[in-house]
Amino acid sequence: MTISPHRADLARLIDPACIALVGASDRPHSIGGRTLTNLIDHSTIRGELYLVNPTKTELRGRRCWPSIAALPQTPDVAIIAVPAAGVLAVAEECAARGVPFLVILTSGFGEAGAEGERAQQRLKEIADAAGMRIYGPNCPGLCNINARLGMTFSPSFPHDLVPGPIGLATQGGGLGRNVMQAMERGVGIGLWASTGNEVDLQVADFIHYMATAPDIKVIVTLLEGIKDGPRLLAALQCAADNGKPVIALKVGKSEYGQRAAQSHTASLTGSAEVNSAVFRQYGVIEVDDIDELVDTAWLFARAMPPAQEAIGIYCSSGGTAALTADAVGTSGLKLAQFAPHTRELLLSRLPDYAAIDNPVDTTAAILSDADLIEQTLGAVTTDPNLGCVLAPIALEYGATTVSLAHTIRAAQQQSPTPIIPIWMSDRLGEGYKLLVEGGFAPPRSVGKALKAVQRWTEWGRWQRAGGLGEARATTPARSPSPAGGTVRNLSELEAKQLLAQSGIALLPAAVAATREEARRIADGMGYPVVAKIASPDVVHKSDIGGVKVGIADGAQVELAWDDIMASVRHHKPQAAIDGLLIEKMAPRGGFELMVGVTRDPVFGHVMTFGLGGIYVELLRDVTRRLLPLRPADARAMVREMRCYPLLQGARGKPPADVAALERLLLAVSDFVMAHSTSLEEMDLNPVWVGSEGEGALPLDAVIVMLEDA
Amino acid sequence: MTISPHRADLARLIDPACIALVGASDRPHSIGGRTLTNLIDHSTIRGELYLVNPTKTELRGRRCWPSIAALPQTPDVAIIAVPAAGVLAVAEECAARGVPFLVILTSGFGEAGAEGERAQQRLKEIADAAGMRIYGPNCPGLCNINARLGMTFSPSFPHDLVPGPIGLATQGGGLGRNVMQAMERGVGIGLWASTGNEVDLQVADFIHYMATAPDIKVIVTLLEGIKDGPRLLAALQCAADNGKPVIALKVGKSEYGQRAAQSHTASLTGSAEVNSAVFRQYGVIEVDDIDELVDTAWLFARAMPPAQEAIGIYCSSGGTAALTADAVGTSGLKLAQFAPHTRELLLSRLPDYAAIDNPVDTTAAILSDADLIEQTLGAVTTDPNLGCVLAPIALEYGATTVSLAHTIRAAQQQSPTPIIPIWMSDRLGEGYKLLVEGGFAPPRSVGKALKAVQRWTEWGRWQRAGGLGEARATTPARSPSPAGGTVRNLSELEAKQLLAQSGIALLPAAVAATREEARRIADGMGYPVVAKIASPDVVHKSDIGGVKVGIADGAQVELAWDDIMASVRHHKPQAAIDGLLIEKMAPRGGFELMVGVTRDPVFGHVMTFGLGGIYVELLRDVTRRLLPLRPADARAMVREMRCYPLLQGARGKPPADVAALERLLLAVSDFVMAHSTSLEEMDLNPVWVGSEGEGALPLDAVIVMLEDA
């Protein structure tokens, strides 16, 4: 298993002193030719650049070397741009020479059928044996904009001219390049890694690198699939430890997307719900579209979210003011109440018919008065009662808008509070250009701006609440289930006994092999009791008449025995029957919840907790966490449920035993950790929770364990 | 009350032969000067244009007239651009001359405090007395792009050069102008009415006009508030009758938005939920942002949604293909299965490593082969198994993208199936311009494109299902409650008797004045019964111990009497007590639902129907309709509930009596219509519904009636 490299290791790949280009070419449209142009004409090489091509002695006035072996020094990075058939030989040469990093641009490997897959596997073996790291193959290369270094064949690299604190890690090149083109809108992306087939280095490794890279403040990633869940989690932990936000767009929220992404990247595909839950747990800001990725990254690059969350709105159209205020409200965000001195200044300076309370509507009449705009916008932007100012610009109005753009730039100089101009028009005029040149990346609609502010605000709240906290002491077994081995459904009694051994409270229960024993057990427990068929072959007991509840006395126990046996034998004549499980009935009242655990193929064991009973599937009032839980996780899970107010004692009901519920979640987490290699799935549904002091008890338990083949 | 004008009436305002401009000016930046420029330099006047200004004899080489009275003929429209102080006098002059329409650009009326409000009122009186119609005041004017006529002072009018089948009706000018600037993206807007203070003509009137205007196919509206609900509904009905989609952005979804919009337009503000429900009922396509308004309008202008709803995706980047497929899936839309001949063509022409099943990923390698792209895109676009083709373009790639744009234009020539190019890059290059010139208005992100397609598809489904149907036979009283009059809570028994008189089935119930009478009544009904305090002063009976359920015999009735009386006297010593309401208890099992009716200040009586009981507030599983209901409405309401599958008999429960539920909804609607002038509010919660044949019964009833003061 490959270990995730430290940042220091990758630094030599990302900011190398000495580079070799193997397959350098003078054909301008070839991969080798384009890469050569990017390196020579558009890059700054810190040390040496060696061109390798056995068929030439010189290329564009530079010496050409016949092989890696022949170079006067060992390069930090060898960029490989030879045809697929020649890649393995070059890789072997590099391994022999001790080159630490290969950037393999060539395609025709894992993405190109079985033969390519074999070649890719061989490439990995060569690299592993030599301790050499590979980036690619089948990738557009690596763009270090902040160091002005383009180890890439992309003809767009010469236009990638806006350095900045945003780091971008993607798999495919097309979507990544799309994000890079957001530089047109003033977004400064300092580093772009596009990892292609990920034979060795993965998106996760570059997130890990960026988490401590001094020139990167904000990490952005596009994921089509995840090759190695634990490696990604380690990277995310490192980003959280360093206070850097990670903004992610993950394809695969629907079956169509999963299918298309899987055929494109051959990554693992877990469930979209689990993926989003893990992202939330790790503080990853998940977005739904590329424009949202860009808007959000820009806002974080501009400023980290302050504790003061309220928003100011400043504009010159009443309708736009109302639309923006509305979007603030529907986003669940707050409009600021201006400080008295702000209000006074606005009142004294703006005309009578202007709206001076937040949102400010100056009216279009004063747009030509740049001084007045600067003063009033300045007053709003320096108001201590807000954390950002939205400045929606509905119109491209020529000279008036140019003047407004100048004013926004000037006002921003006077305050650290970010002004977010929203460019709503499809006409991108001079004013727009001025804003972009001034370091603004205006979102293109009110809704998109609010989405960015909302995500920014929520991440700030998450971080102030402690963020991800210390790295987890225990590393759960997160590898997908081994192919070998069989899975077995434990019987309900087995499952409950196993849970009881782990200290999970349960109602008294025992299996009776005869009618008489059933009655004796029930008499011992006290009534009412529940009787359920005990059979390894019956999972959905109530569907075949295998359950009786509210049994009030011994006579009813015997009746229940007869009824259940008859019904089960009728529906499942072949089922092996151990007898009846007799269980004390839960007290009346209380709520029905559920706790489930599954093993996600990417991330490992995940707990699902939420509302149980008949509404469970319709309402999907559930929350999820990667295991193990910490006490804070259990607390949060209970409070995240939409139905939490009911647990607090709504509608005349007494408050539920939330403390016992949290203890149960933690106990289940411990149970899973103790059985992490074998536990495939468990389902406690319903979990009964009574009022304070009455406890929380799983009433049914299904556990599926992996057993050796 | 002003009657909504017929289209024929407004045609003379919108496409006048003869126009007078009162307040024509040679000061280029004045309202009168700018309007003059738009009329003379940028408009086509069908008949005569008269300039009126008593201080001039000539303006820009044209004769000036001293007054409206002095004109040689009566103009169809007088555009008024004089200062506020002079408007009333001009209006009187116009009224005397018999001018049918005024366009009043001047501001300083209703929006400018009490004095302005008085002047505006006077304006209305002058107009009403003369049968003259007013557009404005405080508006930017009226732009008839299709007739190339700008009765507006907007300096942007000279750029409004893209005629088309989209009609736009707005209140404020700022947001409306923003939509107009979408012409930059190829969106053809043929007519823009921006109605300002709406002293007379409203947005609704222009929607009504557009509903039958031959040059308008798609109606778009921005609403900050609604002045007259029934007038809007009549317009929407007319649009539906003519098969024209109405796309609306309504500000006021949150309290912030409502407050800001109200201060801006002085319109009525109803509840956002009611507004959205009425829109849905009338087939109005509600959008959340201006870019969505534009994307959706363009798509409808391009093509009406076909019965074949499946979607094709054609692009040249694997990541983009996956992202787009994902968005199709999360939107609940379907990817098409290509016809065999399409698949064969793609298979034979595209390279091995391309993805040929939907989504098509040609890979970037073949982008330079225009013929190949045209053939394969052409095959997809003419495939009979799909209704539209998404062509996401992730990158601006110079000449390659130009070639792609040409190909898309060519492919579109060969098929009526719309191709929707999605321009995802922030770099708007030559390829983008080519698409726009070719009549495409590319959405700017995958998510936004899908939102447009989703709304387009849903409207098509709504229309194929019969749309709005015939105009309603009865017009409900929808005027807001009169200021006079007092409201009274009927007692539960009064309310139930009133419902019973209207033929609504209820459980037997009677009020007992003494303990003994209570027992007698209960004995007569048969047990179990429910006892509830009967008092005009107690609404929330259970909160003060005023309810006992499950009373099993006569002794328990007497006990209930004592307990309830003691508890109510303890909590509410001053309450007048009529006795105990004894009611037969509903059978066990069944579901708890709720039916409520409120009077919306804009639209009138609205029914809310949905899940009752403890989950009602948390889950908000409700649906709403404007009354009266038709049988199809009742059917749809029951089926729109998220919990409908439970009513169908999920989880081993028998199916609920859905037919009785529908009858109850219709009966409540009839009841409301019969009491429409006095009914303020009613709340049947819970409504019990049993299994098939058992019926649907309101268990509690609160009715609030308006009584004369």
UniProtKB/TrEMBL annotation, chains A, B:
Gene Ontology molecular-function annotations: ATP binding; metal ion binding
Domain of life per record: Bacteria
UniProt key word RNA-binding: no
Domain named ATP-grasp: residues: 496-532
Pfam families membership: ATP-grasp_5 (PF13549), CoA_binding_2 (PF13380), Succ_CoA_lig (PF13607)
Keyword GTP-binding: no
Keywords, alphabetical: ATP-binding, Nucleotide-binding
Protein family membership: In the N-terminal section; belongs to the acetate CoA ligase alpha subunit family.
PANTHER family: BLL6376 PROTEIN, COA BINDING DOMAIN CONTAINING PROTEIN
Protein name per UniProt: Acyl-CoA synthetase (NDP forming)
Lineage: Bacteria, Pseudomonadati, Pseudomonadota, Betaproteobacteria, Burkholderiales
